[in-house]
Write a structure and sequence with these properties.
The chain has five helices and five strands. The protein has 103 residues and is an alpha+beta fold.
Length: 103
């Protein structure tokens, strides 16, 4: 791992969990590549017929990822729930090691 990359990751580790796209930027990866890696290594999946990604429970229990649930107001006054997988600082550190080892 390059020194400037680890410094950047250390700064991010003090922040909140990142969306997967921002985590990809931090790891200097394309978003499509990290989504593919996460899915291929059992970090995330999509339910049949579902559009959003869901994290595997074992990764949530290890504090590598978490889910952010947001209530969004629609134009007609109703509400909907949106769910987003987020990479925790611990998960970002682990990803930086694992992704470099497998790429």
């Amino acid at each position: 791992m390059k020194p400037h990359k680890s410094k950047h990751l250390n700064e991010l580790a003090t922040q909140k969990a990142l969306c997967i796209t921002d985590a990809a930027k931090s790891l200097q990866m394309k978003p499509k590549a990290i989504f593919s890696w996460l899915q291929g290594h059992d970090w995330i999946y999509r339910r049949i017929g579902g559009k959003s990604w869901v994290g595997y429970q074992d990764k949530i229990k290890q504090d590598l990822i978490k889910h952010k649930v947001t209530v969004v107001a629609r134009n007609d006054g109703s509400e909907k729930l949106t769910e987003q997988v987020r990479i925790t600082p611990k998960g970002l550190s682990k990803l930086s090691i694992l992704v470099n080892a497998t790429c």
